[in-house]
UniProtKB/TrEMBL annotation:
Residues 23-199 form the Spore germination protein N-terminal domain. This is Germination protein, Ger(X)C family. It comes from Desulfotomaculum nigrificans (strain DSM 14880 / VKM B-2319 / CO-1-SRB) (Desulfotomaculum carboxydivorans). It is a lipid-anchor. It is found in: Membrane. PANTHER family: SPORE GERMINATION PROTEIN B3. It comes from the Bacteria. Coiled coil: none annotated.
Amino acid sequence: MKKRILVFVFLILQIVFTSGCWNRREPSELGLVAAVGLDKDGENKVKLTVQIIKPGEIKAPVSKGGPGSPKAVWVVSSTGNTSFEAVRDFVNQTGRRLFWAHNKVIIIGEELAADGVVRYLDFFIRDPELRRRSFVLVARGKAEEILQAEHPLEKIPATAIEGSTKAGKNSSTSAVVNLKQFVDMLTSDSRDPVASRIELTPEEAPKKRGIETTEGGGKEEAVNRFKVDGAAVFKRSKLVGWLNKTETRGMLWVTGKVDKGIVDVNCPEHNGLVSIEVIRASGKIKPVIKDGEITVNVDIKTEGNLGEQACQLDLTKPEVLHRLEEAEAAAIQEEVMAALTKAQQEFGADIFGFGEEIHRTFPREWKNLQKIGIIYILN
């Protein structure tokens, strides 16, 4: 009987002391962050800019007022000696504690990236609220300006940036990297980091293009848009340059990250182009040590469909298909060599993971290698 009473009392105490959510936070007390940008501010300070979602404006009907209509996000900036200090200072402006679980993208300004990103990213790695799958992008110019830009199809610009980044996989012309992958590359001793490039593309005002604006004849100013393509290249933790779309896909061929895309080749013995749609691709790096020299073989395999033919070709003949395959291989090799040449000669960076593969394949030899002469052989 006494045991039953003790158990009953214990259960009552459990109910009393564990009832409710002790660490609950009401949405009305939080600032929901959709995107964050980092810029350099002076010599040793960092400027953080965030897009904070305004829940009341998300479901609101679109107004005919155009640029004057309410926005679904509030863009606000804060400065500090560290990222953590800048984050804590936001509450003085917003009156709310920032909530990071919905953050979609981290945009790093060009000047800060060139100065080195390690010290500024530590907060984003340590904070448990931040998603490690948030995309990392590097801005041509200031990250703050990117976050202030609008998008015609999305009320929340961060959603559009996330969508454009994901869409880069369809054309394989952008280096799609999330926070975890970027940090892994930063901490690697045998590979240099890359990230997606984002930049502004100013759009003319409608009247300049000879298009009538909305009712009332009011002036409609030009609006900055953004686009995501290409790649930012780092040497260790510092930005050293950029790859265009062609060079970026050359890098992706080598690393086996080409998902889809279009390869245009010249028609064999005819004028015009043939567009080949890549549906599957793989890239394999195989290091070999021969006669004391390290050779890296890159084996690229693709499978595709004929998407468009702008010339006269008899595709029923096997020799014609064979010539098309050779033309496609030559086009891919040209893209790869463009990326290799720029990375090696201009940046001196290993963005392909050659050193990583050598380290993995020959761990003993790697310890003794001070200067590695790599011969690129493409199969």
